[in-house]
Design goal:
This protein has a 5-stranded mixed β-sheet, sandwiched between helices. By secondary structure, the protein is of the alpha+beta class. Helices cover about 35% and strands about 20% of the residues. The protein has helices spanning about 5-20, 50-65, 115-120, 155-165, 185-195, 200-210, 225-230, 255-275, and strands spanning about 30, 70-75, 80-85, 90, 100, 135-140, 145-150, 170-175, 235-240, 240-245, 250. The chain has 2 domains: about 5-35 and about 40-120, Nuclear Transport Factor 2, Chain: A; about 125-275, Glutaredoxin (3-Layer(aba) Sandwich), CATH 3.40.30.10. The chain starts with a helix and ends with a helix. The protein has 8 helices and 11 strands. The relative contact order is 0.15.
């Protein structure tokens, strides 16, 4: 990758950090970094992409060799195009003479429109998740759905577990996702928890008291499969949350943001299901 492209990618990271200061904090751990935003998997270009958008995509790939450019479409702002660029949204003109890095906000509602758009573009099909590889927990009527990629030794995962205690009427699927670079002992603990006769009880007890089940973790575990799944979804931070509408959000969200996201996801998932039937 050229030095210019590397500098541009670094500017994306800086822009993301600046944007983060405008939003309520959501923390996650990543290998090699204390906290960062996970990079969702870039979607393949839409086969129905307009010729103009396809031309913009080609120019972006030429200007920034080595960068991952996904979907490109005309935005609703100033005649610019939006492009998925290495897991973020950037904006550019038709000739890719200029590229704007950063988020678009609604000045009235203070809503991050770029973030909402990116969440929709990066959705995964909930039904495609191999939920049999996760530890299942039903709270209340369990009507809402949430999947979590979690590391047993991750402090932010522990924070999320505390926040989830205040959330009801949800089914939580926890994928054991140890990050070896940060916590070399987490895989061992995850295996012991999975090999317990009561995995959910073992998981909950570990976060309350640090107690592990009395076994050597020598049963068949899904750790390799969940690692592959995480790579496919570009999960590089724990915790990472997947909501019922397929939106992927990294970080230990506080209770109020969790509740709001669950409500939104429930509505969006119904819309997606209805559209699929049409």
């Amino acid at each position: 990758m050229s030095p210019t492209c590397k500098h541009f990618l670094r500017s994306l990271a800086v822009a993301a950090a600046v944007a983060a200061t405008l939003m309520p904090p959501a923390v996650a751990q990543t290998a090699g970094k204390p906290a960062a935003v996970a990079r969702p998997a870039a979607k393949a270009a839409d086969p129905a992409m307009s010729p103009e958008a396809a031309a913009v995509k080609k120019l972006l790939e030429q200007r920034f060799p080595g960068a991952s450019v996904g979907s490109v479409a005309r935005s609703g702002y100033f005649g610019l195009y939006e492009a998925q660029f290495d897991g973020q949204l950037v904006y550019t003109d038709a000739k890719v003479a200029y590229v704007i890095v950063g988020s678009v906000y609604d000045a009235t509602t203070k809503q991050n429109l770029s973030e909402e758009r990116l969440r929709k573009l990066n959705r995964v099909a909930w039904d495609s998740l191999p939920l049999e590889l996760a530890i299942k927990k039903v709270k209340g009527n369990g009507s809402r759905k949430l999947a979590v990629f979690s590391d047993a030794d991750c402090p932010y995962c522990a924070r999320l577990e505390t926040e989830l205690k205040g959330i009801d009427d949800v089914t939580i699927y926890t994928f054991l996702y140890p990050i070896d670079q940060l916590h070399p002992d987490s895989a061992r603990k995850s295996k012991q928890i999975w090999c317990s006769a009561d995995r959910l009880k073992a998981w909950d007890e570990f976060f309350v008291s640090g107690k592990l089940p009395d076994n050597k973790g020598e049963c068949d575990t899904p750790l390799a499969a969940t690692h592959t799944l995480g790579e496919k979804l570009r999960v590089n931070a724990t915790p990472t949350l997947v909501f019922a509408d397929g939106s992927i959000v990294p970080g230990a969200l506080p209770k109020d943001r969790l509740e709001a996201a669950l409500v939104t996801a429930a509505v969006e998932s119904k819309k997606i299901a209805a559209e699929a039937k049409q």
